[in-house]
Amino acid sequence: xxxxxxxxxxxxxxxxxxxxxxxxxxxxxxxxxxxxxxxxxxxxxxxxxxxxxxxxxxxxxxxxxxxxxxxxxxxxxxxxxxxxxxxxxxxxxxxxxxxxxxxxxxxxxxxxxxxxxxxxxxxxxxxxxxxxxxxxxxxxxxxxxxxxxxxxxxxxxxxxxxxxxxxxxxxxxxxxxxxxxxxxxxxxxxxxxxxxxxxxxxxxxxxxxxxxxxxxxxxxxxxxxxxxxxxxxxxxxxxxxxxxxxxxxxxxxxxxxxxxxxxxxxxxxxxxxxxxxxxxxxxxxxxxxxxxxxxxxxxxxxxxxxxxxxxxxxxxxxxxxxxxxxxxxxxxxxxxxxxxxxxxxxxxxxxxxxxxxxxxxxxxxxxxxxxxxx
Length: 374
Prior knowledge:
- The protein has 14 helices and four strands.
- By secondary structure, it is mainly α.
- The chain folds into two domains: 74-296, no CATH class; 298-374, no CATH class.
- The strands form two sheets. Strands 1-4 form a two-stranded antiparallel sheet. The protein has a two-stranded antiparallel ribbon with strand order 2-3.
- A hairpin with a 2-residue loop joins β2 and β3.
- The longest helix has 27 residues, at 213-239.
- The chain starts with a helix and ends with a helix.
- Residues 1-8 and 10-14 have low confidence and may be disordered.
């Protein structure tokens, strides 16, 4: 793992256009796929056709796109700023819980107990909603919390950590400890987050049925557009002067300080933005998967996000997206075909990337491309 953490990532300041002609073509192809091709194959092509895209695969790809947003957020702080977080699963889960609270209130009296309170509260003999559920019946209020809760937590934590100049493996361990502490807190029934079962059995969103093909496709398209939008935003950031300062901090923070820049605010701002991106990804994840529980903020979840970025290729933006699709696609197949070997495969994959592919899948592709043109 140390080879991945310390392998040099070249500083490549880019000026001019946001994307090259080939990249714009690829982005346009992704946009057409998300907004036109997938909806047609799922909704218009009959289920018996070989070209039909099943609801299962639509949900699977939608889920992986949420993971890809989290991996992209990881690349901004790890690949371009040199900050390895093992706690981004916490921000992902907080966004998911904020969305889950709204979805639980949308169930209304259709729950098992016929009460306006969520079923788990009735089971625990709660008489009223706790204070932190005050905005749970408001879609806009909860969407605001999707952004504010991860962002505020990241800002406060990051301010004290970066001001104290905690970095490297120590920062990684602290973020993992923060995630683990939050997971233990959410496991407790008295916190009002459903305990170890979390939230599930969602029925509606915006008073519209959730388990319909049209709603499933709407969520899929929205997730795809969000991923594309975040990719463009990240590309703009790393190409800007702000992004070049972030890369300079990654490569030589002391020199950046000597030239008159204060790394604290640069690191804190990109750290907070990265957390917000994960929160939004979690909010898109929950209505598609249909459940959120404390397992989403386990230490292993944060490590997996780092694995996606490392496998795909750090400091490339497209690499973590590729890594998220590759690893989770393999996980989906392995856990069905060879469930007992999945963890061995993941460990072997990460070791192989550490030893032989320090630049990830995208780096390997670029290496072959250079050799062809040489």
